[in-house]
TrEMBL record:
InterPro entries: Phage_capsid (IPR024455), Phage_capsid-like_C (IPR054612). It comes from the Bacteria. This is HK97 family phage major capsid protein. It comes from Pseudomonas knackmussii (strain DSM 6978 / CCUG 54928 / LMG 23759 / B13). Residues 140-432 form the Phage capsid-like C-terminal domain. Residues 69-92 are annotated as: Disordered. It is found in: Virion. Signal peptide: none annotated.
């Protein structure tokens, strides 16, 4: 029996004695002088034991956090992969199992049966072995099991600013989801004793989400894949690359895609009502009062729309928040000191380079978004499909064609299906033509 458990049992026995004495008075009796002394002693003993238990629990947690296998020198990096792929506090990193699938398929040149055998021989988890044994590769790639893809989708939350700000994720049933939204609230009125109650009611419309196919290309160094038996963090690196690439792609479309031809999700910029697209005052000659009034006006648009304000926040490119951070009042004090703790005018902000900064006639404008993210929805099809190629080419961030074969890389393609939409379009306000910070 552990020391903590032993002390807890002892404390429970003392507490039973204490409760028995307390019951005497609760039943209308009174304690003798001897019983009063015993009551005080029991109380002191219970307090002392509670303090000891607290210290022992801290010691146990510290010992558990620093514990290593007794045969670590023998196992180390050659132990089963699931024992090495760690996230915060030693827990398995989200998406690592899918990364193991990717790595094994890459090592097996895409041969699913060979990859399954490698998983078995290499001591990988039974879930990874089973996933590779039962899936059937097709023209689109290998279907990732739902339990693995769920981990990846959860891992996207810190990688995607739209998800991180509180957007809800909902499952798509057969690729579709229809969510009713209230367009007019019930009106409650006061009436006289002889008056008829007026008919009133809510009015509704629908937000319809339909699965859109998104593909992310993730180049991974073959040197990195070859180091799988040497570097205990390879799977986590692959998982991070996949989730970052998917997160950036989703932010790009969830924020500003026009939903062209129905093939793309429609982003917040194009869901916003025309009256909620607010031209920003130009930076030249602008006063702090004008800036504050403009930002407050954006907030007011949402506040007067009768929506729940519990998850509101700002989205903007980094240059805008740095410009606002540099503003000073007439006494030299920071105009918005709360930026240091991640807030602007009382609401959190998220930064994204997926909001372009080259808009407008002069190519120096951008946008600011104020959104109630509690009203935003992402419909998720839980199926992820992965495919690999060592010969394919891709475009880098500068638009240059890169050969995966020439660079000794494996190109991973991840295909996901999802859609984006708001429950209330009134919850999105966009500042357009923002040239703030253009010269930074």
């Amino acid at each position: 029996m552990s020391l903590v458990l032993q002390m807890r049992r002892e404390r429970a026995e003392l507490n039973d004695q204490l409760q028995a004495l307390a019951k005497i008075e609760a039943d209308g009796g009174s304690l003798t002088a001897e019983q009063m002394t015993q009551f005080g002693q029991l109380e002191s003993q219970i307090t002392a034991l509670t303090d000891k238990i607290s210290r022992a629990e801290i010691a146990e947690r510290a010992a558990a956090a620093s514990a290593v296998p007794v045969d670590e020198s023998a196992r180390g990096i050659t132990g089963p992969p699931e024992s090495r792929v760690e996230g915060p506090y030693g827990q398995p990193a989200k998406g690592a199992k899918m990364a193991q699938m990717v790595r094994l398929l890459a090592a097996a040149q895409g041969n699913q049966q060979a990859a399954a055998q490698m998983a078995k021989d290499g001591g990988f988890g039974t879930d990874v072995q089973m996933a590779l044994s039962v899936v059937t590769p097709g023209a689109g790639g290998v279907l990732v099991p739902t339990n693995f893809s769920s981990e990846v989708i959860e891992a996207l939350r810190p990688a995607s600013v739209v998800r991180r700000m509180g957007t809800k994720s909902l499952p798509l049933n057969n690729g579709n989801l229809t969510q009713p939204r209230i367009t007019g609230n019930t009106v409650v009125t006061y009436i006289g004793s002889d008056d008829d109650i007026a008919l009133t009611g809510m009015t509704f419309a629908d937000t319809k989400l339909a699965a859109k196919k998104a593909a992310a290309l993730v180049p991974v160094s073959n040197d990195l894949l070859r180091m799988a038996g040497v570097n205990p963090r390879v799977d986590q690196l692959v998982a991070d690359d996949v989730t970052v690439s998917m997160g950036l792609s989703q932010d790009l479309h969830f924020i500003r895609s026009d939903g062209g031809s129905g093939l793309l999700p429609k982003g917040m910029r194009y869901w916003a009502l025309p009256q909620n697209l607010r031209p920003a005052p130009t930076a030249t000659g602008i006063t702090l009062e004008q800036i504050d009034l403009f930002l407050g006006g954006m907030m007011l648009r949402v506040e007067t729309a009768n929506v729940d304000m519990k998850q509101c926040g700002w989205l903007m490119p980094p240059r805008v928040i740095r410009w606002l951070q540099s503003l000073r009042d007439g006494n030299g004090n920071k105009a918005y000191p709360e930026i240091e703790i991640g807030k602007l005018k009382g609401y959190p902000f998220g930064l994204s380079n997926q909001i372009p900064t080259n808009l407008g006639a002069d190519g120096d404008e951008t946008e600011i978004y104020f959104v109630n993210f509690a009203d935003m929805m992402i419909g998720e099809d839980m199926d992820l499909v992965i495919d690999l190629s060592k010969e394919a080419s891709y475009k880098d961030g500068s638009g240059n064609i890169v050969s995966a074969f020439q660079r000794d890389q494996t190109l991973i393609r991840v295909i996901a299906k999802h859609d984006f939409g708001p429950r209330h379009v009134e919850s999105i306000v966009v500042a357009t033509g923002v040239d703030w910070g253009a010269g930074m």
